[in-house]
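Quick question, first post here. What does this chain look like in 3D?
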Amino acid sequence: MSEVKNIDYQVLDLKKENIFTFSEGIPGFEKVQRFAILTNPEEAPFGRLTAIEHDLCFIIINPWTVYPEYKPDIDQEDIDKIESPSNEEILILAIVTIPEGAPQEATMNLVAPLIIHTKKGLGRQVILNNYKEYSSKYRLWKDLE
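> Answer (accepted):
Ran it through. Tokens below.
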């Protein structure tokens, strides 16, 4: 088992099935390759993609929670890189950005989702083939306007 410190600096024991390797890292954080997905019912529908050996955490969400019409077209080469035989076997998550002091302006990146093959423990961030149909700053709370 590995250990990771959560946002409150409590050490959590992680099982292998909760750890994912992003062999190319995430753009801007290429040297950070091992992550764990952490969830807390009090933070639903959000989760955390937390780096294991670094002080880095991304807020994540299932994009269909907010945008049910989402139809990502993922390149087969990207699917092959996480050793998945098809895109039906992968978990797709969006990274959320929450501006400091303005949570009502939170956005999610629909252009470059994370794809994760949960059985192989592999993941990567990809740019969709149909990226022009989506926004990298899709407002989570559009209905509040």
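The chain is about 5% helix and 30% strand.
The longest helix spans residues 76-81.
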